[in-house]
Amino acid sequence: MNSIPEINWLLALFRIFGVLVMMGAAVVACWLLAGRQFPQRLSAAAGSWVLLIVLWGLGGYALTSRYALGLGAVTNLSDQFPWGLWKALVLCGIAFAAGGFLTACMVYIFRIKTFYPILRPVVLAAYLGYILSASGALLVDLGRWHQIWRPIFYWQHRSVLFEVSWCVMLYSGVLTVEFAPILLDKLGWLKLSRFVHAITVPFVICGVVLSTLHQSSLGSLFLIVPNKLLPLWYTPLLPVLFFISAIISGFAMAIFVSALTFWTFRQPLEPRVLTALAKGMTPLLLVYLFLRIADLTARNAWTYVFQNPLQGVTFTIEMLLLTAPLFVMLRTQWSGRRRWAFAAAIPVIAGVILNRLNVAWIGLLPATGANYFPSWIEITVTLTLVSIGVVIFGLAARYLPLFEHSNPGKHVTP
Amino acid sequence: MISRRRFLQTSATGALMLAGARCGVAGETKADPVTGAAVLVDLTRCIGCRACENACRIRAGFPGLPSATIGYGAGDGKLTFQTRTFVDKTHPTPVKRQCMHCLEPACASVCPVAALEKTAAGPVVYHENVCIGCRYCLLACPFTVPKYEWDNALTPRVAKCDFCADRQTAGQSPACVAACPTGTLKFGRRGELLQEAKARLGSQPHRYTALYGEEIVAGTSWIYLADAPLEELGFPKDLPKESLPNLTWKVISKLPFVVIGMGLLLGFVVRWRTREQHS
């Protein structure tokens, strides 16, 4: 590239274009988030404006570099270590989005009234997390990103990734149907909204089935590398463990998202919503930890904790993060408090994310002999995608009827 | 009422998926382990001349090795996008490396679009126009063979030995085999070559101690004979004898039942909850 000056000019122009577009988007987003006004003086709010504008500016540079130069020039991926942070982001994002199918299932299928108020915020967060981590990260990560549609026409049913890509496409559709009423209510298209509402239940059933399939399949992706993934994580139980931990992460994410949104936007939220979610999470955590420990013992894999220093540490942190909430939840005087429910959700989310990073990255390092750590561009793109999700969520909370069910006097059927 | 209709729909979808899983679309081709094309690599005969490496580069459309380096030096010392085979000289015996052309290749089984395919004749070949660049094949290959065109921004390709599939169709042996001056490489049918390898192993136990490729990951089309355990010659340790695609197929083949089971279960729950609310 360097030998052709014209192309360097094009590259520079492309990068400037990317940076300006992203910075402009950041300004507009901040302006909308702040209620269509600019900050009048230096304050914490002005600081967050600067932070987002800088991050998205760097993100624009990173994204344009990736598309102009290819994966080799901007990532630390190699033939030895072909999957990196962006693939891990797909795994983490989809696990985080599990709150969507879980809440939809509890509301539409089990009809648990307690959870009606948090349906919309959680489904929206799942929708955004899902689209940005699955489609967004894949569009950055795939070498031939413009061929992303190919699995629709080129079938290979023995591939887990084929199944995952179909689940991603179908479940995105399901989430669109689940999200649609929020937008249609805002637009005032009430007839259409009611129609979508009437057909939602079958879609939710499809969504739960699809989620079961592909949350577990993300674990199955790694069944093919028995000689590469460290036995601390490689087990035939991977699909089962991924599915259970996704549900756990779904509970934690529902607590996290609803607590943060209701508190941030000063909406009334019944305390028992959070504590009920935390109570649902506890038995599953116990089952999960029991399975992990029994499986590690049965396969005689505990010795690997001491053989690989880095993996030993990340494994221990992962297990501690997933165990810690139990100490809170199993104490009766704490389990009824929503602050403690919120406090229990955070280590769970962190633990599940670390689990995904361990499986897709850290646990693969020893056997592949690779020394992979993501480049600044990989990290920046990841942060940009995540922050886009957060910003869109904030905008939706501000401008869309997200708290419909929490307002007294409105209809409360889901 | 709704629930019954939905229950039928769910069952129908499940049945369709089940049928789809049975008749199959792609990725199930298996080369015959006996009559399929194979190469026997007798490492005790290899003198490390790198004529195979040179022939491979020329056939793949890259410049050959400078003549001075043929027979000497270690070359790149690894498989790369341009080097689909090379002679590894970091061990007591020179070892030719290339794609092993597994009978049940992990790379082809993980590819979501069937860009990699085990042909009935034996080679595992790559269709670059189908590839989406997910690089799952690089991760899945137990021998870490496929290489990626990392600096191609728009249409990066995967590269690996294709067993000279085109030469085989034309009735020729692979370029590396044709170039080998010592008879280290022998091209033929897998069953016959395995028999010959075992005969050599049995008749000259002082010369041969190891046969590789008969059972590992359910068998490979490239078979190695050596005077040392192949794990000591840089081949991966701890590979199962089981076919790797089987590890995932055991899960995927059960999914239709998961779909039907979950669909029924959720249908019943909806019905139960709806009745309870009406009563």
Please tell me about this protein's structure.
The complex is a heterodimer of chains A (414) and B (279). Chain A is an all-alpha fold and 414 residues long. Chain A has two domains: 1-69, no CATH class; 81-406, Formate dehydrogenase/DMSO reductase domain (Formate dehydrogenase/DMSO reductase fold, Up-down Bundle). Helix content of chain A is 72%, strand content 0%. Chain A contains 17 helices and no strands. Chain A has helices at 5-33, 44-69, 71-74, 85-96, 98-109, 119-141, 160-187, 190-198, 200-220, 238-264, 271-298, 304-307, 309-329, 332-335, 338-360, 365-368, 376-399. The longest helix of chain A has 29 residues, at 5-33. Chain A starts with a helix and ends in a 15-residue tail after the last helix. Chain B is of the alpha+beta class and 279 residues long. Chain B is 35% helix and 13% strand. Chain B is built from nine helices and ten strands. A four-stranded mixed sheet of chain B has the order 8-1-10-9. Chain B has a two-stranded antiparallel ribbon with strand order 2-3. A two-stranded antiparallel ribbon of chain B has the order 4-5. In chain B, strand 4 and strand 5 form a beta hairpin. In chain B, helix 1 packs antiparallel against helix 9. The longest helix of chain B is centred in the C-terminal third of the chain and has 24 residues, at 255-278. Chain B is elongated and about 90 Å long. The model of chain B is unreliable at 1-27 (pLDDT under 50). The interface between A and B is large, with 60 and 68 residues.
